[in-house]
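idk why but the lab printer keeps eating my pages so im just putting this in chat instead. protein + heme C:
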Amino acid sequence: MKKHQILSLFLVLILFSCHQKQLEISSNTYSEFQKKGQEISNLAQSILLANVGQAIQKGGTEYAVEFCNLNAFSIIDSLNHSNKCTISRVSNKNRNPKNALKNKQEEILWELFEGNVKADTILQTSKKLVYYKRIHIALPACLKCHGIRDADINLPTQKKLQKLYPNDLATGYDLNDFRGLWKIEFDAN
Ligand code: HEC
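predcted complex ->
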């Protein structure tokens, strides 16, 4: 076995043993929350894309930087309220410090998503059901803010990013790279 295969196997075993400690998710519950998670993340994604696209047209990439935070949209708040959930995004190379991977389990999950084509999954903790779905650098426009600094990201945008996110890790990506995860947290009962 190659090194990375052994690592994957190891990670699967750890995640599996974590699962044993969690409450079992019945297949009905899994399907129900997978469907909800997919719908909510698709909606959130289209809200974000539409707003960032409009902002780029209106004032260029530099101006659009402030339209990439989910908290900027009251419509995301309404989605949270009406679905009794909390929508966020996480990444191993996060721009906003609030979007870092939150614990060991998320770090393991990240590695599994990296080595696998699985689109989404659900984890259950004692209080929550958490739906995760992969995000890729799917459009060339993403590179204007997440690509290579001088080649893809113009100078005014670099300056704005530096000012708002001094600890930014989210650059250097290429088209189709694995970028992050949608994370939709639902109360477990
Ligand atoms: C106009 C600049 C801009 C564009 C274009 C852009 N982003 Fe971002 N992106 C940002 C900013 C700014 C943040 C930090 C938002 C925050 O404060 O939560 C961010 C955050 C993210 C995050 C959350 C994790 C993190 O790093 O904090 C993901 C995932 C992400 N972007 C993916 C994408 C994808 C995929 C595209 C293309 C569809 C894209 N972005 C296009 C500026 C941009």
